[in-house]
Amino acid sequence: MNRLTSAAIKHLGEVGITVFAFLGLNWINELVFIQLQQSNGINWVFIPAGIRLLSTLLFGLAGFEGLLLAGVYLNFFHFEFDSDFRAWSGAVAGALGPYLAALLVKHWFDLEPRLKGLTAHRLLFTGILCGLMSPVFHHTFMWVLTGLVDWTALTAMIIGDTIGILIVLCLAKVAIALADRYVPASKLIRRWNSLGRSETQ
Predict the structure, then answer these.
(1) Residue 196 — left, alpha, or beta (φ > 0 → left; ψ -120 to 50 → alpha)?
(2) Which DSSP letter does residue 118 get?
């Protein structure tokens, strides 16, 4: 029972971290890059996209769930899209695209925990892959609904997501490398990652 409780708490914690990190970076993005907005919810620089990939790489399914919750909240209560389909499909695309990209990257590169093995070339490939998948999924849903593709918006999303992903992944790699040099931070991260694992041994 304790093992299940610990695993559930860890999972919910990762979902919560994803939600708040995404919402926080979205707020920062709107403050800093609002002048680069192409249309409602689409920006030529979109740093929250980095949280999409980072959370799914680090947290897996919990990252997907957190992104879906954050996407639903933003699309229904912040961006105020014209149709419910647009809001739901955007939330699903924004969570599913990075999750599938993370699964593919983990399989292809056999990544170790905490992004070890994610070299500069692999990081660039990963950022571009995720930067393509979410926008393509999003505009595929819109094409199904309307039969049209807004190529300018699609281009803006691909560029904005890719730039945002690369910024956040680079910062995350630097932060993890610095944390490895300081024992207290390293211990906290290892304790979080091993939560519940000790119960199974």
Answers:
(1) left
(2) -
